Amino acid sequence: MQLLVLGTNDSVMGSNKSGARRKSGDSGLVHRESQKPVDFGIARGFTLVELIVVMVIVGILAVAVIPRFASKADFDARGFSDATASMLRYAQKSAVAQRRLVCVSFSAASVSLTMASNFGGVCDMNLAGPDGASPYTLPVPAGVSFSPAPTAFNFLPSGTASLPQIINVVGVSTPITVAATGHVY
After folding, report:
1. Helix (H) or strand (E) holding 2
2. How far is Cα 60 from Cα 67, in angstroms, rounded to an integer?
3. Exposed, middle or buried: residue 5 (CB in 10 Å: 0-12, 13-18, 19+)?
4. Distance (Å, rounded) from C-alpha 17 to C-alpha 145?
5. 182 strand-pairing partners
6. Phi, psi of 74 (to 5 degrees)
7. pLDDT for 115-172, tens place per residue?
8. What Rg, from alpha-carbon coordinates, does the chain have?
9. Quick check: 102 and 154 in contact, CB under 8 A?
10. Would you say 92 and 104 are in contact if contact means Cβ atoms under 8 Å apart?
11. 10 in helix, strand or coil?
12. Which of 40, 50, 101, 138 could bond 111 through an S-S bridge, CB–CB 3.0 to 4.6 Å?
């Protein structure tokens, strides 16, 4: 659509192609198809009320959401707690599926799993993880720790835990519980 064409007269007061007189505020530009003058006097935009409402909403979001992203350590701690619980569930299921003793050990830097090479034996070989990587070890992220340090324990071939315990990760409100039955929650 071709939009605008200058009138036939370049003066402020004059006539357009149709012969009609222009007003002094008229730009002299007309729409080619409708021959109606185009009004550039009305600016389009947001009202002051709309701008203030948007600023209030952004302010509320800034106060409520940004502090949650300020501390990466809380996210790391929660992720590590979830990964540890998942690892313990895997250890319990592996003990039952392979009918072997699975040992869980904790250090300041990692959580690792080993298993007995034969039924009734001691933990003498690494347990492969779900992805096949051996040993199955979960590193502790920087700034994350256990409180207190958990005691090493075993999952028996029946799936029960040799030592039920509660594992606390600093910065996470919900502890990991290993019941005597072997249930991890």
Report:
1. none
2. 12
3. middle
4. 83
5. none
6. -65, -40
7. 999 988 899 999 999 999 888 999 999 989 999 999 999 999 999 999 999 999 998 9
8. 37
9. yes
10. no
11. coil
12. 138
pTM listed for this prediction? 0.64
In this structure, the number of other CB atoms found within 10 A of the CB of residue 152 comes to 14
Exposure string of 81-104, with b = 16+ CB inside 10 Å and e = fewer, is beebbebbbbbbebbbeeebbbbb
Nearest to 178 by CA among 95, 113, 84: 84
Q: Tally Cβ neighbours within 10 Å of residue 157.
A: 17
* Token pair of 133 as six digits: 């990587």
Q: Please give the sequence-ordered ranges of beta strands (E in DSSP) within the chain, or none if there are none.
A: 4-6, 29-31, 102-106, 110-116, 123-126, 137-139, 153-155, 165-167, 176-178
Residue 182 parent element (H or E): none
- Output the six-digit token pair for 170: 């600093």
Share of the chain above pLDDT 90, in %: 61
CA 20 remoteness from chain centre: 64
Length of the chain measured in residues: 185
